[in-house]
Recover the amino acids of this structure.
């Protein structure tokens, strides 16, 4: 990562107290990797507004320090937040420069406070004060999978990845072979296919589109409404088996009766969330976890 952060989220507490952070802004050329890895609509601007966190970029050979994490999936659970997007020359726009996951502060800049700008030092101290509020609150999830947006990045190189498979049978591309062949020579078509089916993507070693969920007329595999509907379908003889398979796919629960499923859902409704990187599962936040100090 370079020496700067994007000029965003400046209203967050870590820019306000205990020290007022007053960055000095400048505009820099948008790195080529941002354009190359951009998954959103339209094009990114040619220049971006940033502020320097440290005085020099620390570089190992020709490779800048890595960012803390990719943008895809970092805020997949309620205990994670991006405090600053790092200006970088290797990952996508939005990759995390400084982030929080549970009670862990993740600081992606390499130099000590003596080498930081005045704004960088104040920001660093504020982040230390801020993370103290989450003492004892370990991360809700551990990364066991990859976010669904990764399909669009990987789709562009799917054919090359399957060529690698021919030389290394232990390597299994995340994009299934049948889809790679279907969109052979048309990587943009494969990207669009995943965009069109974004709400039905899940990963079981490889990425799949959940045709069973679609067949029930449901709109998303990560919606709380979907979970409630699936539990309700356990009492429908026509769809009960499908609903049970999907509940096994998307939760870690193994209740035998529809009443037990319903009771679990009602007891935890306000604390249930869905995580891609946590395994494409509906998970439950422990009681009191989100209470602030």
């Amino acid at each position: 990562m370079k020496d700067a952060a994007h000029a965003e989220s400046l209203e967050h507490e870590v820019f306000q107290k205990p020290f007022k952070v007053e960055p000095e802004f400048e505009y820099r050329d948008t790195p080529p990797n941002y354009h190359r890895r951009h998954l959103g609509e339209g094009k990114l601007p040619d220049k971006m507004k940033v502020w320097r966190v440290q005085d020099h970029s620390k570089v190992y050979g020709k490779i800048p320090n890595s960012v803390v994490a990719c943008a895809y999936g970092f805020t997949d659970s309620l205990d994670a937040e991006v405090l600053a997007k790092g200006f970088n020359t290797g990952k996508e726009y939005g990759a995390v420069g400084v982030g929080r996951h549970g009670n862990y502060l993740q600081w992606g800049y390499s130099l000590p406070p003596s080498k930081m700008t005045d704004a960088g030092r104040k920001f660093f101290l504020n982040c230390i004060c801020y993370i103290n509020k989450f003492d004892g609150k370990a991360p809700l999830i551990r990364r066991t999978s990859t976010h669904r947006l990764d399909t669009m990045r990987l789709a562009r190189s799917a054919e090359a990845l399957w060529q690698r498979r021919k030389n290394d049978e232990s390597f299994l591309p995340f994009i299934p072979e049948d889809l790679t062949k279907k969109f052979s020579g048309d990587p943009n078509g494969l990207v669009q296919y995943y965009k069109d089916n974004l709400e039905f993507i899940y990963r079981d070693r490889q990425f799949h589109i959940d045709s069973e969920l679609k067949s029930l007329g449901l709109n998303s595999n990560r919606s709380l409404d979907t979970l409630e509907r699936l539990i309700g379908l356990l009492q429908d003889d026509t769809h009960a088996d499908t609903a049970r398979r999907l509940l096994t796919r998307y939760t870690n629960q193994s209740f035998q009766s529809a009443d037990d499923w319903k009771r679990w859902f009602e007891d935890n409704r306000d604390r249930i969330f869905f995580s891609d990187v946590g395994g494409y599962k509906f998970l439950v936040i422990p009681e009191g976890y989100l209470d602030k100090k």
In short: The radius of gyration is 22 Å. The CA atoms of residues 103 and 137 lie 5 Å apart. The first strand starts at residue 4 and ends at 6. The mean pLDDT is 92.
